[in-house]
Specification:
The chain is an all-alpha fold. 24% of the residues are buried. The protein is built from 9 helices and no strands. The protein is elongated, with a radius of gyration of 21 Å. Helix 5 (97-112) crosses helix 9 (195-210). It is 68% helix and 0% strand. The protein folds into 2 domains: 1-69, Arc Repressor Mutant, subunit A (Orthogonal Bundle); 84-210, Tetracycline Repressor, domain 2, CATH 1.10.357.
Length: 211
């Protein structure tokens, strides 16, 4: 994160063609500093108390640098949450259904237990009840980002003959994402040693039984 005050630099003149007068280059280092600051500010004070002033101060930039990119804190958060959905997770490929499920759980658990994520997700869920825009973006980030991974796990298992091609992929997504999310985010319970192994074995068995 940047600690010095800075503003976006004007577009330099080129030998062939010029940018319109007054145009500014949106420097990527400034953009990344703002994005980092938003996540940290959300974790520290929550969406309701978060302000453009606080984000700018934490990022070490002027408020105008934030407003050049996003017109409000709502649009800023929506953009970042949507970006998380686009990034997604890699599809595990261990050679077995249970191995793939276990690796997926390990990746998801690491994300959900991160101190920043553990503060931001519940707060945005509360805001989603009041804002359809946040609700839609959050659903996309939490569900759609895992959907391609879950489908990938299921289809690899089908190719290996471990699951039937008739398995409902929406049901598979619920089985793969629901239990761990409930424990880590909703009930905020610990994950004792061996828990993910047992959960992976139970989930793999449930997927086979559901096919």
């Amino acid at each position: 994160m940047l600690v010095r005050m800075t503003t976006d630099a004007p577009t330099p003149r080129r030998a062939t063609g010029r940018a319109p007068a007054g145009a500014a280059v949106l420097r990527e280092d400034v953009t990344e500093a703002i994005r980092t600051a938003v996540f940290e500010e959300l974790a520290a004070v929550g969406f309701a108390r978060m302000s453009i002033e606080g984000i700018a101060r934490r990022a070490g930039v002027g408020k105008t640098a934030v407003y050049r990119r996003w017109r409000s804190k709502l649009h800023l958060v929506l953009d970042l949450v949507s970006a998380v959905a686009v990034q997604g997770l890699p599809v595990p490929d261990t050679g077995t259904l249970q191995g793939d499920v276990r690796m997926l759980f390990s990746m998801v658990a690491r994300i959900l237990r991160h101190p920043v994520a553990s503060q931001i997700i519940p707060d945005l869920q509360a805001e989603a009840a009041r804002s359809p825009e946040i609700a839609e973006a959050l659903q996309k980030a939490l569900r759609d980002s895992q959907q391609s991974v879950a489908i990938g796990v299921v289809r690899k298992a089908v190719e290996r003959g471990e699951l039937s091609a008739a398995l409902d992929e929406n049901l598979a997504l619920d089985l793969l994402s629901g239990p761990l999310y409930w424990r880590a985010v909703v009930s905020r319970a610990d994950l004792p040693k061996g828990y993910l192994d047992r959960l992976a074995a139970a989930t793999a068995a449930a997927l086979r039984a559901a096919a």
